[in-house]
Design a protein that fits this description.
Elements: E1 4-6, H1 22-27, E2 38-42, E3 44-48, E4 56-65, E5 86-95, E6 98-105, H2 109-116, H3 121-124, H4 137-147, E7 160-164, E8 167-172, E9 174-181, E10 186-190, E11 203-204, E12 212-213, E13 219-229, E14 233-244, E15 249-257, E16 261-262, E17 287-288, E18 292-297, E19 300-302, H5 316-320, E20 321-323, E21 329-335, E22 341-347, E23 351-361, E24 366-374, H6 378-381, H7 387-390, E25 400-409, E26 412-419, E27 429-433, E28 445-450, E29 458-463, E30 469-473, E31 478-480, E32 484-487, E33 497-505, E34 510-517, E35 523-528, E36 536-542
Parallel strand pairs: 1-30
Antiparallel strand pairs: 2-6, 3-35, 4-5, 4-36, 5-6, 7-8, 8-9, 9-10, 11-13, 12-13, 13-14, 14-15, 14-16, 17-18, 18-21, 19-20, 21-22, 23-24, 24-25, 25-26, 27-28, 28-29, 29-30, 31-33, 32-33, 33-34, 34-35
């Protein structure tokens, strides 16, 4: 029997049940005034104590400005999509049982222009290129020279965090990033690779935002690549590459081709490239086990005809990517030691954002990898548009599924897919994390939140072996973001540790931080930040000697 266990009856802070309002949610899509930037500010402890053994910072890619959210004006005076906001860094630093809060805009051109217009999008409009949100071409032309002035970065990638040696890189879905002091939320420099023409003339395209690490500290990732051959032919391939943090060298360790792109097949504006085998497939994350790299290529596909027929009035991925429900997903498996792709397996059409765990099971001859599987790309093309949650619309019960794909390894084929939750779980799931020590190994627990960017969020612990779910609601008006697992000192069990979650307090119009016992989801600490924070994307925890401009960012250490 698979069960759902909720703690609603045992935790007095949720006895009334979640009752978030639209006005509270709207706060999470508003603006952080430039005057409200802080460093090392004290938080207000609402309950409990922060574990004294936690030393480091929980950092998050936060939005700083959405503009005139909720406006009905015909002018482009607001950022309509979570992925396109003006970004800032936000961190909670733990030291000696105390917690401080930092929230800073990066010293970038986009911030300088925002300041020039006195933080008023009615005056500035949206002057930068967007992935999904509406953009103003006139404003883009007007601010182009300032936006791309060489003294500062135009903006900072704000999707994921990569640990590269002792540095931390802010990354997006492109194989380059910026070095950040995550404890002070400070831009340091654009990360400089030392590998010359590592692609041998090929140009990189979309790549997963998320990375993996091997036992030697190398980072593993993937990317699409193209190279032109004549006027209308482009060769297209996907590569797997590693980054050595010591040498700063990227090395392609495996690849496979797509069919060539022939632009003479493009017939007109809005007409999608007719051959799906020549369309790069979107991946936001991938899996790694002891011996294999698993790349789940989705049915969300790039349209190369937008190179020929490009509509400047439509922002980036709104025209460049399309979900194709009649096109199978592709699961590609690469052997790590040889770089050989040993399998390309068709699977039913799907879209995925994030992974849980993955591992090989030699005794059964199976490889299991677990993902959040969507039936379409609405996670990007609908539910992350700001106006949708603010309309009161809530996620459908079948919006996303925690799914296990089991592959036969001898020979390679798809054995089965199954829903890891078979109890009555109707909320949508997002931002899964596991104990990182179990990445690529048999594991039991995953931690997620529900209803991301919407009302009625909760924290979930999933037992992937028996399907049991523990769920804790948040107090009214509190909107959670990504949960991060941190193992306890001398941990024995997989779930010996804590879960750290930051988020938005829409009632107080401030940020909040909570720490939970990962074993039973008991809340052990709750604090309120002195200033507002907003929705953004990913979080991660780093000790003070990682991602620091100096050798060590531990408070009180002189440099």
């Amino acid at each position: 029997m698979r069960r759902v266990c909720t703690f609603l009856l045992f935790l007095p802070w949720v006895l009334s049940g979640p009752d978030d309002t639209i006005d509270q949610l709207k706060v999470a899509f508003s603006n952080v005034p430039l005057a409200d930037q802080v460093s090392g500010a004290q938080v207000t402890v609402e309950e409990g104590e922060a574990p004294a053994w936690i030393e480091g910072s929980l950092v998050r890619h936060a939005c700083g400005a959405y503009g005139e959210t909720g406006s009905t004006s015909n002018m482009v005076n607001r950022v309509g999509h979570v992925f396109d906001c003006i970004v800032m860094g936000q961190s909670y630093s733990f030291h000696g049982g105390e917690v401080t809060f930092s929230s800073k805009y990066y010293d970038s051109n986009i911030m300088q222009i925002w300041e020039k217009y006195e933080e008023n999008m009615n005056q500035s409009s949206v002057w930068w290129g967007c992935i999904y949100a509406d953009q103003n071409r006139t404003a883009m032309d007007r601010e182009g020279s300032d936006m791309y002035a060489p003294e500062r970065p135009s903006t900072v990638p704000a999707v994921a965090w990569w640990k590269v040696g002792s540095e931390v890189l802010a990354m997006s879905e492109w194989p380059s990033g910026d070095s950040i002091d995550v404890h002070k939320n400070k831009y340091l420099e654009h990360y400089q690779y030392d590998d010359g023409d590592w692609t041998n003339g090929w140009q990189t395209m979309q790549s997963p935002a998320h990375e993996h690490y091997d036992q030697n500290g190398k980072i593993w990732s993937s990317a699409g690549m193209i190279i032109q051959d004549g006027d209308t032919i482009f060769h297209l391939k996907r590569v797997v590459f590693t980054l050595d943090p010591e040498t700063r060298l990227r090395e392609i360790v495996g690849e496979f081709p797509y069919e060539d792109i022939d632009l003479t097949k493009c017939t007109g504006m809005g007409q999608v490239y007719p051959d799906p085998k020549g369309r790069l497939r979107n991946i936001h994350s991938f899996q790694m086990t002891e011996n294999y790299i698993i790349i789940p290529e989705t049915s969300y596909m790039f349209d190369p005809c937008t190179w020929v027929f490009h509509n400047d009035s439509i922002s980036g991925w709104n025209q460049e990517f399309h979900y194709e429900p009649l096109e199978s997903a592709k699961i590609s498996v690469m052997e790590k030691t040889t770089g050989n792709f040993v399998a390309h397996i068709d699977a039913p059409a799907m879209f995925t954002t994030h992974m849980l765990g993955a591992y090989e099971e030699p005794e059964s001859g199976l490889l299991h990898f677990d993902i959040l599987k969507y039936e379409n790309a609405d996670a990007y093309t609908k539910w992350t548009f700001v106006d949708v949650p603010l309309s009161g619309e809530t996620h459908p019960s079948d919006f996303v599924q925690a799914t296990r794909y089991s592959l036969n390894m001898y020979p390679w084929s798809l054995n089965e897919t199954k829903n890891l939750i078979q109890a009555d779980m109707t909320k949508s799931l997002e931002f899964p994390n596991i104990n990182p020590a179990y990445q690529g190994k048999p594991y039991k627990f995953a931690y997620m939140i529900t209803n991301m960017y919407n009302r009625h969020g909760s924290l979930v612990k999933l037992n992937v072996d028996d399907g049991m779910v523990l769920e804790v609601d948040f107090p009214n008006g509190l909107f959670p973001t990504e949960p991060i697992f941190l193992a306890s000192p001398n941990a024995v069990a997989e779930d010996d540790g804590v879960l750290m979650i930051s988020g938005i307090d829409g009632e107080q119009e401030k940020g909040f931080l909570m720490v939970f016992n990962a074993t039973n989801l008991e809340r052990i600490y709750h604090a309120t930040a002195p200033k507002l924070t907003l929705f953004g994307i990913h979080a991660k925890f780093f000790p003070f000697d990682i991602g620091c401009e100096e050798d060590d960012c531990t408070p009180g250490i002189s440099h």
